[in-house]
Design goal:
Number of strands: 7
Bound molecules: glutamic acid
Low-confidence stretches: 7-23
Distance between the termini: 49 Å
Helix content: 40-55%
Shape: globular
Number of helices: 15
Strand order of the largest sheet: 2-1-7-6-5
Order of helices and strands: HHHEEEHHHHHHHHEHHHEEEH
Strand content: 5-15%
Largest sheet: 5 strands, antiparallel
Radius of gyration: 20 Å
Mean pLDDT: 93
Amino acid sequence: MPIRLQKYLFLTLTLIVFSPAALAEMPSDADLQRVVDEAHARFKDVKEGANANYIPILDTVPSDLFGVVIVTREGEVFTAGDVDYRFSIQSVSKPFTAALVMAQQGPEAVREKIGVEPTGQPFNSKIAIEMYPSRSGNPLVNAGAIAAVSLVEAKDEDDRWRLVHDNIEGFAGSELPVLEEVYTSEIETAWSNRAIANLLYNYERLYADPEETLRVYTRQCSIGINVEELAMMGATLANRGVNPSTGRRLLPAEHVPELLAIMAAAGFYDESGEWMFNAGLPAKTGVGGGVVAVVPEKFAIAAFSPRLNEAGNSIRSMRAIRHIAGELGVGLYGSNPEL
Ligand code: GLU
């Protein structure tokens, strides 16, 4: 064989074997179901941690509930465990309202008016508001999420709520109720978030009335969702902003990477570095026990389990997702299933 042809064949084969597309092949349906089952079986008996109780009603959610779901960008669904129970979405809603602001006003609005830096502080930190020039940090901590709700362009409070709710339903591809008991429990005890809203207003980093913003933010956190619907929200990001089941576009494709970058940097509050170290996937947690992680342009993994660690992150959900990321080798930087 002529040398030039040999060289050509060698180069072609090398490109096929080592190109990112080949490395990041889509796992088979059988593998997706296997890892979901395995993750559920492996962690179902873990009892570590405790339900959130600073919002009194969250302490009454049955702690043993545990569900794990993968939804692909084509809308295929793989489930194990308690996938029907609707829990409060809490902070898992935050990136999706940031997406709404991006869709309405472009990503620069999020960067300039909220910020995109991780705070390294707990989810409800007031110290971070004093420490950082952006005040609100990023849209995934309470300060930035409250700022994001205030930034949504709306005519009045009803319109603001309608836009926020419709956007989250759009990502989920389902009608989602507000869990009124959660809303009442949370708004009656929302002194910390009220302080945050007022502090931001003081620094001119809140863009609507603080009490109105607080109500809409708290309603957003009280939306009821099951783990399959949550995985569909993530799959919409994996599908470059289009819901795989309804075909509705929620976010321009070119802004999905910017949103995922914020999730990678700040999705787990002061445990974000640890999470990326272990799992290597952009993800978001909530104190209701839900977590959603995105494998860009492939699928989303969601899990639900109410018991949290000290940072407010669901222990079994994190372990299940880390395990799946490791088993499938889909961590953006490689991942270790044993951690
Ligand atoms: N609604 C909760 C709060 O504002 C969300 C916190 C979370 O899920 O991390 O305190």
